[in-house]
Input
Amino acid sequence: MAHRFTVNSTIQGVSIDEFKRLASDTALHEAVCRRIPGEKLEIIESKIQGDTYTLRRAYNLDVKIPDIAKKLIKDAFRLKRTDITNLEALTSTIELGANLPLHANCERSVTGDDLQIHITLNWQVKIKVPLIAGMLEKHAEGEIRKFSDLEIQIVEDELKKNCSA
Output
């Protein structure tokens, strides 16, 4: 059974119409990617076809372990992420893959009005390690929540920079 959790966030001062306009530009998504803590970011695909935006990227997570350990395990924390977004409905599916026995996916939706937008991330995490999977899934939830919150802060900053431009 997979572990499920939800992340909710509201961004004030950005209308749903402004968000929809800005989200239809690949530059915004790529700017957010470049600001997420990690190493060796590789944007594999970033394209809009009709109402569908596809963003595939890979990067090494910025995990808190000693530098010598990072050198020894090299790309063990390399994350591969695919976001497929319906730009009209403002819904997305997110798939995370890693060089670890982890499978995580998310259904993202953005709603709002003239004053704010609301982001909902419904995550599902499955770790394939016998006996301790539940404990590792709870730890993964903490890390995903931390990175989701950070990403939403970066999105808010990028949106507000672009709204005033």
Notes: The radius of gyration is 16 Å. Helices lie at 16-23, 26-35, 67-73, 133-163.
